[in-house]
Design a protein that fits this description.
protein dimerization activity; 0% strand; mainly alpha; 171 residues; 2 domains
């Protein structure tokens, strides 16, 4: 954490208040713990490998696991707060895009698709897009993909066979 950033944000409270769903802003004790850890962060003797970490999420993850000389984790709360803030979606575009794909996939005739099937369709589309050609006509599945698909298909057939063997007595 650079001193320039700390000059602009001497307290974590404005940031915590902006993320009301991540931290209980009504609990003064929690806010005080976060603020204390934020202020101590600048003066703590943190290892260079953590201080020089460029990736924000990796920095906070390493800091959350770091213990001081007394085996305390002095920044566990602030680290968890930061990581919780980082996992929040910063825009709705990704979520909306996925919902749009699901709506296109689940039509009136395909309305009874289970979640696993819809998930598999979405993952397949993403895998094809990441392919070098970017389209389904030139897509070449790997041996691993084919092996996994065959295993999953066989698992499904075994499940269907088991259901067919069940004797259903309807009164």
């Amino acid at each position: 954490m650079s001193e320039e950033i700390r000059k602009d944000n001497p307290s974590i409270l404005p940031i915590a208040l902006a993320f009301r769903r991540v931290v209980e802003v009504d609990d003064i004790h929690v806010l005080q713990i976060l603020d204390d850890q934020w202020r101590k962060l600048l003066f703590a003797k943190i290892p260079e490998e953590i201080k020089t970490e460029k990736k924000v999420d990796v920095f906070w993850a390493k800091l959350s696991k770091w213990s001081d000389l007394t085996e305390n984790k002095p920044f566990s709360d602030i680290s968890q707060f930061a990581l919780d803030c980082l996992v929040l979606p910063h825009a709705n575009a990704d979520c909306e895009r996925i919902f749009s794909k699901i709506n296109l996939t689940k039509s009136r005739t395909r309305n009874r698709l289970v979640t696993g099937t819809v998930d598999a369709i979405l993952l397949s589309c993403d895998a094809i897009k990441r392919n070098k050609s970017g389209n389904c006509t030139d897509f070449e599945p790997t041996e691993e993909m084919l092996r996994r698909a065959n295993n999953k298909s066989n698992d499904g057939m075994q499940c269907i066979d088991q259901v067919a063997e069940i004797d259903i007595n309807i009164p």
